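Q&A log
Question type: sequence-to-structure
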Amino acid sequence: MASKYSDFATYLEHVDQETFRIAEDYVVPDRDLWSVLEECLAQVDVDQIEDHAANFLMSYGADDWSDSGHHDYEYEMEQICSAISKDLRRNFADWVRQIEIQASPAFPVRCIDPNASFLNFNYTPTLQRLYDVADNRVLHIHGSASDVAADIILGHGWDRRASDLRSRFTNEGTDVRVAGGFQLIDDLLAETFKPTKDILARNKTFFEGLKTVTEVFVLGHSLAPVDGMYFHAVLDQVHPDTQWTVSYYKDENATRSAAEDIGIAGSRLRLRPLNAL
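Response status: OK
Response body:
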């Protein structure tokens, strides 16, 4: 399936070149970084956004000043912030909903038990269509592509502190246009933040229902820190002696380190290539 973030980059470049350009200028400056798009959203180059907008911050005392230019700075800032916080995610949701699922898997994952419970980070109904898993056994934690009304969640996991806010630089002497720009930056980072705590609270029943689980398979997830809170929630609820089998793609040691960072004991951890499961 063409479901990698790099596939999304190709799609975005085709359907919305302006948003793609802004994303590459301020979010993913290297094409290879599309593979960690969510992490990149936590590191938006706000300094570069402000530097670009500063070209439109004309002094009130300039000879060619006119009132029509009063909002130019904030307008440029808003165009960039809106493309990242709204247009990028809208296109992402559209892309997720058009991903084609094969009629049958070329290399089926043999360990999938239709009677298990599934915490699914994949937006598509692959489990239901290819492995005959019932909808009520799958929690699409970040939204389901099959549900046209679902909020498709894409974002970073950096929970900002008050000291991180750009608007903390605002004081009585701050140019009102610059203050407006600070607020736009703060809003951008807030809107691209993945509200993991709220999502966990809304799905409390699912996680509390894991107390009798004694075997966990992690299939095709890198255990990236952006989703760390979900894995901690699973670890807190399942039986203490649960055996964890975690798939890895290329780097077994990196996957082992990520699992240990979550708190999975090495004695209860097995690492396997996905095609071996």
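Response note: The chain is about 40% helix and 10% strand.
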